[in-house]
Specification:
Shape: elongated
Largest sheet: 5 strands, parallel
Strand content: 5-15%
Helix content: 40-55%
Number of helices: 21
């Protein structure tokens, strides 16, 4: 039964209102003053409050402020026998749902009651829907790298500290931002996203800070910017590395002062937002090159979170594919098909894997995903984007050649220790040595990545990344 609280110092009003509401099958609680009313709110799950303006001990408007602070979702209807326009305006500005004058009209009481409870129900349904949507945006995986991301999110979410999320395109940076917001104290407030790379430089300031009517040719009306829309919530600045220096300067000022001015405006607007930023660029290098403000970088990078590329967490690939296919029934994945998935480099990361899942749904039939069918889909994709890890033809025809290769020394490559690197700069020298060292070790292991990685003590995924970086061949 829906519970409604009546706070009024007149016994007749309390009795009459309670009788009206109980006839409509509501459960009514009454309090003769605001202090007792606040006690009842702490004890009972009340859905609506009727609150008198003139009360002993604690006035109605002061009580309204306390209710809004402690129970922000609770609707409050103010009532008064000494009402005037100014008082009604003050009450509504303070958060009241409506304002009723005494003597109370039965029809008016029931109409306002129904409207307030409908609004309450819509808000609860909206909150439930948001939670159900957000639970589908899980960060899937059991790899140590993903467990580390989850742990950092959990630790960071409770604070209002700014977070910089880094990682390649398609790795899931937006999922991290949404997870932080979902676990934060701002979860019931707006989550506003801005793709800094998708907005033309001429419009970025208007998008972020809003504009006043007439600020520029097409500004036919005033408009709030993303900072204002995200007030009390979270602002996610995606691809922050693509923001112009001019816009960076203004964002920095808003972060420092928590105030802004719309484009073409003079009024200062206070803002309370938590900023999460993401980029696929190395912002330290961008700072060194003069393309990103170092002071803004330090402001944003309070808590860094790195979202690893999919190739560095191969144990999550099959798990993710199952997740993307679950709406169509979770099929079996043949072992050879699973090996094929983990051998692929996934340059498009999780986004590419999700696209593959959609393609499997359309192109493949049956309860098992087989290697033959998967090979055709991956071959079409790898031709444009990625590559498969290949077993050298010599090993396919002669398995004993692996043992021969392990005992052989490459004779056609320059020993990395003989390189003249001392005349070079640090970065150039390091990369030259690394390239030759890896090429030498790959040749020694006959181009077999898993054996090379084991021999030099790094993960195969890391070795793959370096092979692509230096354009090394993996077959002799």
């Amino acid at each position: 039964m829906t519970k409604i609280l009546i706070i009024d110092d007149e016994p007749g009003i309390r009795k009459t209102l309670a009788s009206i509401l109980e006839d409509e099958h509501y459960q009514a609680f009454t309090a003769e003053d605001a202090l007792r009313g606040l006690e009842i709110l702490g004890e009972e799950p009340v859905s609506l409050v009727f609150l008198d303006v003139l009360l002993p001990k604690l006035g109605g408007l002061e009580a309204l402020e306390r209710i809004r602070e402690t129970w922000p979702q609770l609707e409050v209807v103010m009532i008064s026998g000494h009402a005037n326009v100014d008082m009604a305006v003050r009450a509504v500005k303070a958060g009241a749902f409506d304002f009723l004058e005494k003597p109370l009209s039965l029809d008016r009481v029931l109409t306002v009651c129904n409207n307030a409870l409908t609004m309450q129900n819509l808000r609860e349904e909206n909150s439930t829907l948001k939670k159900s949507i957000l639970t589908t945006e899980e960060i899937i995986g059991t790899s140590p790298a993903i467990e580390k991301v989850r742990k950092t999110i959990k630790q960071a979410a409770a604070s209002d500290a700014r977070i910089l999320i880094t990682g390649e395109n398609g790795s899931g940076k937006e999922l991290v931002a949404r997870a932080v917001h979902r676990l934060s104290s701002r979860a019931d407030k707006p989550f506003v996203e801005v793709n800094c790379a998708a907005i033309p430089e001429a419009l970025i300031e208007s998008e972020l800070f809003g504009h006043e009517k007439g600020a520029f040719t097409d500004a036919v009306s005033s408009r709030k910017g993303r900072f204002e829309l995200a007030d009390k919530g979270t602002l996610f600045l995606d691809e922050i590395g693509d923001m112009s220096l001019a816009a960076q300067s203004k964002v920095l000022r808003v972060i420092q002062e928590q105030k802004l001015e719309r484009v073409g405006g003079e009024k200062t607007i206070e803002t309370d937002v938590r900023i999460l930023a993401a980029t696929n660029k190395d912002l330290e290098q961008e700072c060194a090159a003069g393309r990103f403000r170092e002071d803004l970088f330090f402001r944003l990078n309070v808590i860094p979170i790195f979202m690893p590329p999919l190739r560095e967490r191969p144990e999550d690939i099959v798990l993710l594919l199952h997740h993307f296919l679950k709406d169509n029934g979770v099929p079996e994945i043949e072992e050879a098909a699973g090996d094929m998935l983990t051998a692929y480099e996934w340059p498009g990361n999780v986004r590419e894997l999700k696209n593959l899942a959609e393609r499997i749904t359309v192109m493949c039939s049956g309860e098992t995903i087989r290697a033959e069918a998967l090979r055709g889909l991956l071959d079409q994709r790898s031709g444009a984007h990625g590559s498969m890890r290949k077993t050298p033809a010599s090993l396919e025809s002669d398995p004993n050649s692996l043992k021969k290769a392990e005992n052989s020394e490459p004779t056609t490559l320059q020993n990395p220790l003989s390189l003249d690197i001392f005349s070079l700069g640090y970065t150039e020298a390091k990369e030259l040595f690394e390239k030759n060292y890896l090429e030498w070790q790959l040749a020694k292991n006959n181009g077999i990545i898993s054996h090379t990685a084991e021999a030099i003590g790094i993960y195969p995924s890391n070795l793959h990344a370096k092979i692509r970086k230096y354009g090394l061949r993996t077959e002799r």
